[in-house]
Amino acid sequence: MNELALKLRIIFINANQRLLERDIDLFKSEVSERTLCGALKEHIDFYLHKTEYANYYTDVEYNRNRNGKVKTCCPFIEDNIPIPVTINCDLIIHSRGKIISQDNLLAIEMKKSTRSKKDKDNDRLRLIALTKDSYDNVWSFDGNTLPEHICRYKLGIYYEINYAKKFIKIEYYYKGNHLEYEDITIRF
What we know:
- The mean pLDDT is 86.
- The longest helix has 20 residues.
- The protein contains four helices and ten strands.
- A hairpin with a 4-residue loop joins β8 and β9.
- The chain has a single domain, classed as Alpha-Beta Complex (tt1808, chain A).
- It is an alpha+beta fold.
């Protein structure tokens, strides 16, 4: 991982630890992914605003419309034709299009362990696509304009909550690759 991805990982780790300390009641009551994302957002903001990335935004289920077009990524290519997939990540850190040189920093997809394998795998594929630098030459980044399709997130995180076994599985994605995972015990 590069320096920026490592910094984002530290922000996330600290925010998640703070979530587990201050909002453990949310885990006890087995709330929805959306509620946990909202709480995690607050803790990410707490740490993000202490860094040089304080001018970035943390948004829950953000889907930017550009010129009336919903943003997409192209994780799949069939018969040499890119297949766009709409993007509506559970939680992202980005500049909302204001910092063209590096608009997208962190993408988090959150799932309960009880969700289908297909839903979980779709989130993982989305993180692979979002963290790629380009889509197999479908487009390249020129540094001056925002691309039609979204990618170039510096870090992707898949966050799966298993309420029954009281643990969280976290997977890290970087440059279109799954790097590693860790399990965190939820203590209550």
